[in-house]
């Protein structure tokens, strides 16, 4: 793919992710206008809004798969792996803010998302086994807390860059918010 075509595709996917996150009914015409490309340029790649949504979801999932691998959740020290993971997820979340609930419309995307969550759950279980996270928590609580911390920090504190968010998220998950 030519570099300008790749740039246009990236712009379309990022703009589509943002606008579809705000309004799942956003038109291809509105996405094209916001992306600064012609409607035909979008339609050459994506026949429908749903096809564009699915492409955004697949692109987001590909980015998350890369982060899960780079974080080395299965072998890096827990705090290091957690920081890498959160830093990467924040960047992806901000780049492709489309809601995960829209993945339910696409069985392949939904299945991939569930597999990614299983990898994160296995990592958090390792963190518990190594004593980095309390092991007496109800099932799924650590993962739910991690998800909520990342969502809150990533969306509400956009003035913080991804490494700063990761610092806060890791400290909050592993240490808590209590005073010393």
Q: How far is the N terminus from the C terminus?
A: 55 Å
Helix/strand structural class: mainly alpha
By DSSP, the count of extended strands is 0
| Unreliable stretches | none
Overall number of structural domains? 2
Following the backbone from N to C, one meets helices and strands in this order, namely HHHHHHHH
Give the topology, please.
Blueprint lengths: L2 H20 L5 H8 L3 H7 L3 H23 L6 H18 L11 H23 L11 H16 L5 H13 L6
Helix pairs in contact: 1-2, 1-4, 2-3, 4-5, 4-6, 5-7, 5-8, 7-8
Describe this structure in words.
Helix content is 71%, strand content 0%. The model has no long low-confidence stretch (mean pLDDT 91). Helix 2 crosses helix 3 (39-45), helix 4 packs antiparallel against helix 5 and helix 5 packs across helix 8 (162-174). By secondary structure, it is an all-alpha fold. It folds into two domains: 1-47, Arc Repressor Mutant, subunit A (Orthogonal Bundle); 49-174, Tetracycline Repressor, domain 2, CATH 1.10.357. The protein is elongated, with a radius of gyration of 18 Å. The longest helix is centred in the middle third of the chain and has 23 residues, at 49-71. The protein has helices at residues 3-22, 28-35, 39-45, 49-71, 78-95, 107-129, 141-156, 162-174.
What are the key terms here?
2 domains; 180 residues; mainly alpha; Tetracycline Repressor, domain 2; 8 helices; 0% strand; single chain; elongated; Arc Repressor Mutant, subunit A
Brief summary:
With 180 residues, the protein is mainly alpha-helical. It has helices at residues 3-22, 28-35, 39-45, 49-71, 78-95, 107-129, 141-156, 162-174.
């Amino acid at each position: 793919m030519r570099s300008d075509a790749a740039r246009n595709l990236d712009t379309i996917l990022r703009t589509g992710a943002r606008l579809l996150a705000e309004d799942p009914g956003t038109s291809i015409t509105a996405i094209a206008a916001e992306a600064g490309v012609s409607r035909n340029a979008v339609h050459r790649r994506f026949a429908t809004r749903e096809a564009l949504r699915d492409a955004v979801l697949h692109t987001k999932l590909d980015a998350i798969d890369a982060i899960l691998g780079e974080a080395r959740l299965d072998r890096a020290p827990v705090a290091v792996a957690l920081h890498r993971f959160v830093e990467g997820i924040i960047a992806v979340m901000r780049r492709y803010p489309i809601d995960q609930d829209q993945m339910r419309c696409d069985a392949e995307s939904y299945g991939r998302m569930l597999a990614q969550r299983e990898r994160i759950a296995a990592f958090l279980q390792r963190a518990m086994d190594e004593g980095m996270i309390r092991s007496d928590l109800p099932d799924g609580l650590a993962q739910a807390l991690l998800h909520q911390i990342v969502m809150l920090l990533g969306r509400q504190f956009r003035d913080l860059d991804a490494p700063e968010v990761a610092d806060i998220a890791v400290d909050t998950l592993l240490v808590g918010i209590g005073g010393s």
